[in-house]
Amino acid sequence: MKIYNTLTIKILLVLVVVFLSGCSKEFLDEPTNTAGIPRAVVFSDRDIVQAFETGIYARYKGQWDNDLADGVNNSDPDTGGLYAMYFARTIKGNDLIQRPTFFLFDYSHENRGASFRRTRFTWEFNYEIINYANILIDGVENSPDLGEATKKEFIAVGKAIRAFHYFQIVLEFAPNYNNDRTVARIPIYTEPTTEASVGNSPSSLADVYELILSDLKSAIPDLPEQRLGKSYINKAVANGFLSRVLLVTQDDWSLASSAAKAAYGSDAESAVVSSNWGEGFNDLSDQDWLWGHFQDGSNETNFFWMAPHVFTDHLTLSFQATYANTNFRDTFSDDDVRKLFRDIYNSSTPYREFVTTKFAFTFASDVPLMRKSEMVLIDAEAQYNLGNEPEARNLLFALQKARDTNAILSTNSGSDLMDEILLERRKELYGEIGVEWFDAKRLRMPINRDDVHRVVVNVPADSELFYLNIPQTEIDANPNMDASVNQ
Questions:
Q1: What is the mean predicted confidence (pLDDT) over 68-97?
Q2: For helices 435-442 and 414-429, what crossing angle results, to 10°?
Q3: Is the peptide bond before 460 cis (omega within 30 degrees of 0)?
Q4: Phi, psi of 364 (to 5 degrees)
Q5: pTM of the full structure
Q6: 366 C-beta neighbours (distance < 10 Å), count
Q7: Confidence class of residue 73 from pLDDT cuts 50, 70 and 90?
Q8: How far is it, in rounded angstroms, from Cα 436 to Cα 431?
Q9: Percent of the chain with pLDDT over 70
């Protein structure tokens, strides 16, 4: 077993400068790697611990390279940070279409092999961040210099980060939680590891989700409301994590609702207000955004291929790789501000008929990772499952009328109401977090493509195509990971 981390004896230290621009947008200078600071020094001072946390978030945006010390960037646009994993999910559905370029194998559902780059990246990236989180928790817990309030805060941050990334791993490498909770594919690590560490045996899905929920429930009370910027995890973001996890476990809809409300602020009508629609969807300062990647547009360009903007924008010099399904476009009313589809190519090829202008690419394009509008829709789904359909309709309508002034309060009930909520999730969140794939997997639904697509592939409910094989590198290095795990 080899844990891919760069923080063993020496620790990744980053420096951050926070200032407010004239347009009231918080800017963070790109953290720089100054490896070599002794562990005791890093965890002796609050500001340095804060810089360590900032470095973790910076890694979310970097291009994947399992050897940061060799001076060579061995990465590709489809194996970046968190955004690459989300976009790989995004183009597995029916709503968007990918031309033959980066992410093409994800689009074709052909990218789950044990030796593939997608599989290795997704495994190694998430476990790397988990190890950073464990180092943070351990270093803060054992520091003789930090005060108790500081310790509680940063331990909570570490637990929220750890929970978030175990959630990503279990989504990517295991079947649906409610298929069989005894399935064991994911090793658990709650202590820092080194390259000499022996890999743990895989734990059951039940145990992995127990850790995720335990981490989040213990972290949320100790997380602050305030933060340096929206790239940072605070109490609202962690509540958003919790509500997403509960969409999968489906065993505590009351908590899913209360967590979502805590994330969006309880007032749905004010929460869903957004000025990003039609403006490029690239501004972190929008009040609807809870969490995202900040880009300063100057010193982050060398390795910047950040999805979704650089792939979906056809009006700017970029990859111009992603198209919109005509049938998905037709689900939007003409008065919906989200109906941002254009026929710019006048092509007779069905899949090239429309592109979306939702995302505008520049090197300063911020990337959405979580929005209040998503939380309102989670609350609506929770109310539906609690049997409170009138409130579910009201929450749904709060978003619908904010996007279309001519929207009418839904009269749907039962499965029709649930279908409407799911459609609204697709219309609101397309291109952002892989919502179509996520909902199909957690609700045990198929992904069926229509013939507009460049590659027509149908994924049955509960198909193995909903999860990746365990990387061969992990099987070879971990004596406790049986090769039969991929059979």
A1: 86
A2: 150
A3: no
A4: -105, 15
A5: 0.93
A6: 26
A7: low
A8: 10
A9: 89
The three state secondary structure string of 327-359 is: HHHCCCCCCCCCCCEECCCCCCCHHHCEEECCC
Answer yes or no: are the C-beta atoms of 252 and 213 closer than 8 Å: no
Please state the domain extents for the chain.
10-476
Q: What angle do CA 465, 466, 468 make, to 5 degrees?
A: 75
63 token code pair: 């291009």
The 3-state secondary structure of the chain, one letter per residue:
CCCCCCCCCEECCCCCCEEECCCCCEEECCCCCCCCEEHHHHCCCHHHHHHHHHHHHHHHHCCCCCCHHHCCCCCCCCCCCHHHHHHHHHCCCCCEEECCCCCHHHHCCCCCCCCCHHHHHHHHHHHHHHHHHHHHHHHHHCCCCCCHHHHHHHHHHHHHHHHHHHHHHHHHHCCCCCCCCCCEEEECCCCCCCCCCCCCCEEEHHHHHHHHHHHHHHHHHHCCCCCCCCCCCCHHHHHHHHHHHHHHHCCCHHHHHHHHHHHHCCCHHHHCCCCCCCCCCCCCCCCCEEEEECCCCCCCCCCCCCCCHHHHCCCCCCCCCEEECHHHHCCCCCCCCCCCEECCCCCCCHHHCEEECCCCCCCCCCEEEEEHHHHHHHHHHHHHHCCCHHHHHHHHHHHHHHHCCCCCCCCCCHHHHHHHHHHHHHHHHCCCCCHHHHHHHHCCCCECCCCCCCCCCCECCCCHHHCCCCCHHHHHHCCCCCHHHHC
Longest dimension (CA), the chain: 68
pLDDT of 39? 81
What is the rounded CA–CA span in Å between residue 354 and residue 330? Answer: 11
pLDDT confidence tier of residue 304, bands split at 50, 70 and 90: low
Show the tokens assigned to 24. Answer: 């009231």
Q: 440 burial class (0-12, 13-18, 19+ CB within 10 angstroms)? A: buried
Three-state SS for 250?
coil
- CB contact at 8 A, 135 and 190: no
What gap in Å lies between CA 368 and CA 282, rounded to an integer? 8
Query: Are the C-beta atoms of residues 305 and 293 closer than 8 Å to each other?
Result: no
For the domain covering 10-476, report its CATH number.
1.25.40.390
